[in-house]
Amino acid sequence: MKREINAFDYAGDICKALPKGILLTTKRGDEVNTMTIGWGHIGIEWGRPIFVAYIRDSRHTREMLDETNEFTVNIPYGNVDNHILGYCGTKSGKDVNKIQDLGLTLVDSDHISVPGIKELPITIECKVIYKLKQEVSAIPEGIQSRYYPVDAQGNQDFHYAYYGEIVGAYMIEE
Length: 174
Ligand SMILES: Cc1cc2nc3c(=O)[nH]c(=O)nc-3n(C[C@H](O)[C@H](O)[C@H](O)COP(=O)(O)O)c2cc1C
Known about the structure:
This protein is an alpha+beta fold. The protein has one domain (2-172): Electron Transport, Fmn-binding Protein, Chain A (Pnp Oxidase, Chain A), CATH 2.30.110. The protein contains 5 helices and 10 strands. The protein has helices at residues 11-17, 60-68, 82-88, 98-102, 141-147, and strands at 2-4, 22-28, 31-37, 40-45, 48-56, 70-75, 106-107, 116-117, 122-133, 159-172. The structure holds flavin mononucleotide. Residues 21, 33, 35-39, 54-56, 59-61, 89-94 line the site of flavin mononucleotide.
C-alpha cells in the first residue's frame, strides 16, 4: 500500500540517511536498475521542488538516465538491511541484476514509469529537467585530486548533477 506524502516533510530523514546511502532507481524498457548514492540534496529552483543527484560518468545509471530522464529515490525509514546499500553501491547493472539478486520488491509509481522499492519505503518520483557536468577547474585543488584523479586512460570520471523535478512522493506501507 502507498500513502502520498510531501517530500519536504522528510527532508531531515533524507539528509541524515545520505551519508550511509539511499537508492536511486532507473528503468529502461523492462530493465530496472538501482544504485546507492551518498550525495544529493532536496530544495527549490525555478520555483519547483527539486532533488539533485550526482552521478559519475562511468555508472550504468548515468547511461539509463540520459535515455529515460526519470528516476525514483528511495530512502530508508526504520530498519534497513545495510547489505542492500552495500550491494547496490558496489555492483553495476552492467554486470548483474541487483533487483533480482536482492529480491527487492518493486511498487508502481503514480507519475513516472520508474517503480519505488518497498524495502526503503520513502519514495520520491523525479523527472530530469536539467543536467550539468561539473566544471572541474572551479573545484578546489584538494577536492579535485581526491575525487577526480586521472586514470591510466586519461579519464577523470566526473560527476554530472541531475536535477530531478519532484513530481510525486509516497511512503510504501504494509
Ligand atoms: C555509500 C555509497 C554512496 C555512493 N554514492 C554515490 C554517488 O553519490 N554517486 C555515484 O556516482 N556513485 C556513488 N556510489 C557508487 C555507486 O553506487 C556504484 O558505483 C554502483 O555500482 C553504480 O551502479 P550502476 O553501475 O548500476 O549505476 C556510492 C556507493 C556507496 C557504497
